[in-house]
């Protein structure tokens, strides 16, 4: 088999040396020449032009130009380019540098940045140093980026090379990190650019233009009294040789193998296979296929597919980023899990286009005992709502979402996982996506990215040491809509079989490619007990313009395929963004556990929503249930909204006490959990879970008799009645909503966020509020987003009180975007509109007479809440010998802790009666939940099947473990 990396084959030393690019012959640096509002540098290899408004053009001789502009996001991801600012001075300094000074970032009413940019000519390049400082408080979202645009020409011959390990033809999608990047002819002239250390790049296509977005900064933001320095260079060079393996083979079909003599129980049994034959694509099981037939000590027979891989090793760790480097020739492997103690016999079969061949390992592989081995995670045989290992030990997932394999906050991926594990986390979810660990994103469909596959190899190798289990999410909706679909290899414009996204679910060729990817995935990673489950995809409603029934039909087809491929019977799941998801999907037999994805997007008590979702899944399915994503905001989340993580805390404790088989997995790692150091929440819940028989006993929901709510006058900060809306695209079933003196809203589930206009007349049903103002006040509408222009009209007692146009388009609102899919503009307003209202009883009607919808997040009635109900919640579960209980003061919400902490009132001491307990003595452990520590014990008696708990005053929340004493 011919398979080599040209002259660098197998040599890590050579690859390390390959990091050093040979310099160009020394030449005198050119000088800037002014002409009108631009300055030009002429090199032997090309030309650069700086336009005074903030654009750099770079052109290598004989190639299309590259246009470079700088941009940043601020506040709620408002986009601003350097060109949109104002230039105060532009001149050539005595040291030959071109210096530009000005203001940057003024849209949306934000304070501008002040910048100084120096462009210094050097041999074959320009060194760019940008210093940025704030003129007033301003939140930067993600540092400073550059947009690099170039035309895509017919029969495009240029290549993008992200040195040292990534390349694509101009016009094809590419993402990754680089030390130096090149755009030009292979082994010929190219434009090159770099920053300080590793930089990241992503790309997208639009018409005949290829756009690259490059992040040149490590920090996302900086303080008001600091400066951020961005260092870049743009120049000309000869493109280095790109190392690519040759993987095709044309030889007689032969096979032999080398296997370990023994392997520990549940360990990885990796067999090295020497295979030659005739094939073009070693990843295509129709072209070449390797399979292992295994006979275990008990006589069980199963088949596990083999796979081809290009081995990679972790190269230099640069800027906390892992760089994978190819290491030698491609290899064939079989990976088995040692599932039974005793001899394991293996027979290998290979098939190419010319025939078959068989090789039996001459000696069985001995599987030895390992008392520490837990095995794979299964649905518990003791209780189908929970999980357990093959060993019988229960498994309770605790973790948070770190789905993209990348460094962040100055930490490598390994650093992040070690910190998670140190705080009791044992669960993460990896997206096998274009921007993550996805493998089917090569230039041609049916080929698999080996650096990404090698990263997943390393993660699983290290998982045992960390006690981590991974949910492998094999696709995500971002790759099947908008820019993701434009570059998706399944898209017909990229050579794939699908003209529309929906054909990914229905086209025979697309499904055939998908089944081959499933085979490769099981072959390479199915051996590992640390694969918690296969997840078909992230939030399938996001696949563009596909009916739900089509998606569910696809799941019904693919779930049995995956189950049949996997001899180790890993769990299988999928996910939806519509909270608890469609029941028809969860009823598919091969779907092993159900999910909830929930972003509250309101200011209610998240514990109440969590409880509702848990009970829906508990009562609906005899399957485990996991919250795999949650947060208080799905977009535009501000860490300062809940700086201590009270929502994380309340959601976790409510879920565990309501039958969720693990702690819910929050989002927002990089900008929230890590910088706010909120890991202690995971340690706290882990401390409580330790020793509880989740997964090893049968549990039941416990009915609790609560004390009566206490009516009190509303506090100053609580006197506004706030009606929160729900995000659903339908016609509201109710039109009249009564606001009570306690701030309650009748038919609250029908108060929808979208107030429809002319584009959806069939969905129009404007809300009318019946409300009594005790004194003069205001009616406040919070407008979030508007589509294609709106026109709000507010009527108070049928008299027009306000008419407010809400136009859409450029410079309308705080930010705006053109939605290509719908051919219209959307604008973010994020503003309050107030209408004065006199004291007394009123009917207030809100109408939208615009072209499309207006999104309203809440309606506020100032001073209309005169009474409060002081309440407490109690959730409980019981197994035969133990119970868990969580008490929550209804005042202890994330909003109140962030905004009204001094007004939170402890709930007074009261009795809580739990049903279904055998008469006798019980021990109660009382737990302080914020830090996860036991605070005391007490002995109590159950009588008449009831158990009465007296937790005392509840300032925020508390929990209890209850154990029956020996009878």
Notes on the structure:
- The strands form twelve sheets. Strands 1, 2, 3, 4, 5, 6, 11, 14, 17 and 18 form a ten-stranded antiparallel beta sheet that branches. A nine-stranded antiparallel beta sheet has the order 7-8-9-10-19-16-15-12-13, with no helix packed on it. Strands 41-56-57-62-59-60-61-58-42 form a nine-stranded antiparallel beta sheet, with helices on both faces.
- The radius of gyration is 31 Å and the shape is globular.
- By secondary structure, it is mainly β.
- The protein is built from 13 helices and 62 strands.
- The N terminus is likely disordered.
- A hairpin with a 4-residue loop joins strand 59 and strand 60.
């Amino acid at each position: 088999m011919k398979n080599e990396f040209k002259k660098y084959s197998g040599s890590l030393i050579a690859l390390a040396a390959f990091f050093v690019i040979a310099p160009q012959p020394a030449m005198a640096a050119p000088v800037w020449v002014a002409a009108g509002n631009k300055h030009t540098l002429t090199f032997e290899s090309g030309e650069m032009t700086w336009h005074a408004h903030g654009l750099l053009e770079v052109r290598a001789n004989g190639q299309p130009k590259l246009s470079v502009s700088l941009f940043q996001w601020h506040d709620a991801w408002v986009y601003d380019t350097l060109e949109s600012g104002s230039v105060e001075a532009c001149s050539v300094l005595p040291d030959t540098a071109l210096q530009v000074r000005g203001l940057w970032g003024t849209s949306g009413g934000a304070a501008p940045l002040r910048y100084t940019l120096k462009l210094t000519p050097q041999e074959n390049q320009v060194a760019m140093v940008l210093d940025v400082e704030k003129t007033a408080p301003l939140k930067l979202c993600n540092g400073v980026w550059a947009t690099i645009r170039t035309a895509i020409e017919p029969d495009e011959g240029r290549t993008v090379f992200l040195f040292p390990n990534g390349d694509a033809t101009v016009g094809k999608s590419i993402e990754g990190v680089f030390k130096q990047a090149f755009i030009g002819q292979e082994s010929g002239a190219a434009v090159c650019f770099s920053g300080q250390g590793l930089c990241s790049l992503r790309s997208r296509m639009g018409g005949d233009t290829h756009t690259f977005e490059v992040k040149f900064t490590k920090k996302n933001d900086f303080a008001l009294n600091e400066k951020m320095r961005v260092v870049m260079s743009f120049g000309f060079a000869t493109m280095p040789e790109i190392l690519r393996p040759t993987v095709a083979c044309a030889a007689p079909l032969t096979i032999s193998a080398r296997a370990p003599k023994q392997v520990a129980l549940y360990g990885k049994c990796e067999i090295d296979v020497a295979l030659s034959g005739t094939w073009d694509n070693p990843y295509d099981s129709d072209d070449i296929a390797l399979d292992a037939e295994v006979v275990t000590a008990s006589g069980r027979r199963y088949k596990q597919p083999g796979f081809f891989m290009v081995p990679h090793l972790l190269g230099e760790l640069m800027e906390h980023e892992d760089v994978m480097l190819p290491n030698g020739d491609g290899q064939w492997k079989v990976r088995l899990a040692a599932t039974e103690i005793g001899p394991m016999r293996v027979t290998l079969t290979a098939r190419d286009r010319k025939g078959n061949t068989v090789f039996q390992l001459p000696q069985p592989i001995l599987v030895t005992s390992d008392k520490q081995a837990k095995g794979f995670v299964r649905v518990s045989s003791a209780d189908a709502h929970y999980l357990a290992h093959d060993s019988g030990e229960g498994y309770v997932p605790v973790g948070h979402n770190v789905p993209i394999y990348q460094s962040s906050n100055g930490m490598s991926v390994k650093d992040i996982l070690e910190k998670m594990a140190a705080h009791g986390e044992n669960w993460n979810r990896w997206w096998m996506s274009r921007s993550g660990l996805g493998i089917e994103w090569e230039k041609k469909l049916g080929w698999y990215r080996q650096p990404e596959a090698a990263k997943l190899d390393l993660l699983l190798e290290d998982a045992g040491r960390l006690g981590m289990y991974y949910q492998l999410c094999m696709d995500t909706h971002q790759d099947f809509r908008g820019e993701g679909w434009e570059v998706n290899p399944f898209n017909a414009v990229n050579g794939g079989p699908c003209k529309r996204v929906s054909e990914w679910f229905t086209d025979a060729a697309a499904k055939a490619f998908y089944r081959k990817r499933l085979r490769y995935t099981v072959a390479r990673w199915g051996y590992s007990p640390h694969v918690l489950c296969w997840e078909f995809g992230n939030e399938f409603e996001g696949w563009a313009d596909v009916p739900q029934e089509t998606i569910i039909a696809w799941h019904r087809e693919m779930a049995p395929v995956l189950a049949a491929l996997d001899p180790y019977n890993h769990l299988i799941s999928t996910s939806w963004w519509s909270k608890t998801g469609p029941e028809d999907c969860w009823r598919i037999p091969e779907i092993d556990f159900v999910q909830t994805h929930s972003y509250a997007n309101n200011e209610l008590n998240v514990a109440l929503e969590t409880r509702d979702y848990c009970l829906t899944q508990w009562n609906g399915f005899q399957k485990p249930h996991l919250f795999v994503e949650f947060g208080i905001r799905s977009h535009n989340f501000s860490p300062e909204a809940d700086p201590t993580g009270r929502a994380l805390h309340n959601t976790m404790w409510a879920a565990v006490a309501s039958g969720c088989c693990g702690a819910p997995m929050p989002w927002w790692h990089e900008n929230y959990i890590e910088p706010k150091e909120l890991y202690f929440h995971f340690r706290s819940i882990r401390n409580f879970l330790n020793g509880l028989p989740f997964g090893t006993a049968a549990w039941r929901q416990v009915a609790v008799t609560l004390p009566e709510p206490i009516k009190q006058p509303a506090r100053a900060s609580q006197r506004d009645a706030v009606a929160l809306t729900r995000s659903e695209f339908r016609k509201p079933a109710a039109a009249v909503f009564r606001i009570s003196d306690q701030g309650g809203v009748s038919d609250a589930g029908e108060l929808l966020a979208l107030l429809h206009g002319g584009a959806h007349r069939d969905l129009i049903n404007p809300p009318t509020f019946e409300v009594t103002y005790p004194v003069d006040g205001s009616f406040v509408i919070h407008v979030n987003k508007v589509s294609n222009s709106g026109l709000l009209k507010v009527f108070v007692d049928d008299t027009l009180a306000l008419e407010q146009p809400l136009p859409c388009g450029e410079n309308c609102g705080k930010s705006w975007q053109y939605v290509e899919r719908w051919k219209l503009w959307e604008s973010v307003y994020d503003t309050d509109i107030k209408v004065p209202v006199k004291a007394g009883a009123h009917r207030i009607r809100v109408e939208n007479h615009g072209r499309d919808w207006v999104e309203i997040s809440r309606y506020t009635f100032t001073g209309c809440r005169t009474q409060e109900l002081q309440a407490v919640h109690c959730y409980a579960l019981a197994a035969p010998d133990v119970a868990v209980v969580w008490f929550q003061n209804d005042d202890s919400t994330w909003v109140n802790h962030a905004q009204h902490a001094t007004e939170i009132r402890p709930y007074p001491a009261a009795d809580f009666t739990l049903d279904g307990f055998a008469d006798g003595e019980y021990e109660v452990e009382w737990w302080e939940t914020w830090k996860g520590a036991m605070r005391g014990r007490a002995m109590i008696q159950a009588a008449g099947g009831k158990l009465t708990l007296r937790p005392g005053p509840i300032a925020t929340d508390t929990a209890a473990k209850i154990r029956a004493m020996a009878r």
